[in-house]
Amino acid sequence: MRMLIVVSASTALLLAGIPGAIAQEKPSDPQIAHIAYTAGTIDIEAAKLALSKSSNQLVKDFAQSMLDDHQAVNEQALELVEKLGVTPEDNSTSQSLASAAKTTRDELDDLEGNAFDRAYIENEVSFHAQVNEALEQLLIPSIQNDELKSLLETGLKLFQGHQQHAEHVAAELQ
């Protein structure tokens, strides 16, 4: 239980920085593209970890869904930025996300069995809730390019479904 609290706290700290970091200065489209891609990559890596560690079929199915969906969205994002001739721009928000995700991944990696499954799914609930909020309230409203905005709006709908799926799995693991 202690590790679940630590992982959840790490996730909260990771995501608490998104609104503040973005609010300080309105991000550009290349920065938004990098933030969104980084968030997707973080969930891809978490899904791969869950697939390698969990023996719970419900958790494995959820992780496979996250892997497939986030890879597909990241591929679409890469195609779009290439089409638009935009180079995603690394920024402090992306760096904070990556750093905190590494800490959370290391903490998850130390867990086994049911403790891992519960911590992974709780992390997914928190992660999707915060990223969805950042997309909805900060990132999408700041986008200038209509195609990028459309991609992230579509992604938001998908990720809201991810959050609901994660909440369902979390309830099943109780």
What report would you give on this structure?
The protein has 174 residues and is mainly alpha-helical. The protein has a single domain, classed as Ferritin. 87% of the residues lie in helices and 0% in strands. It is elongated. The protein starts with a helix and ends with a helix. Mean pLDDT is 88; it is low at 1-15.
Give a brief rundown of this model.
The chain has 174 residues and is mainly α. The chain is built from six helices and no strands.
How are the secondary structure elements laid out?
Elements: H1 2-24, H2 29-53, H3 57-84, H4 92-109, H5 113-142, H6 146-173
Helix pairs in contact: 1-4, 1-5, 2-3, 2-4, 2-5, 3-6, 5-6
Supply Rg. Answer: 16 Å
Would you give the CATH topology? Ferritin
Q: Can you count the helices?
A: 6
| DSSP, total strands | 0
Q: CATH H-level name... which superfamily?
A: Ferritin, core subunit, four-helix bundle
Order of helices and strands: HHHHHH
Overall helicity: over 70%
For the largest beta-sheet, the strand count, sense and barrel status come to: none
- Strand share of the residues? under 5%
Q: Please, how many domains?
A: 1
Structure characteristics:
single chain; about 170 residues; mainly alpha; Ferritin; 6 helices; disordered N terminus
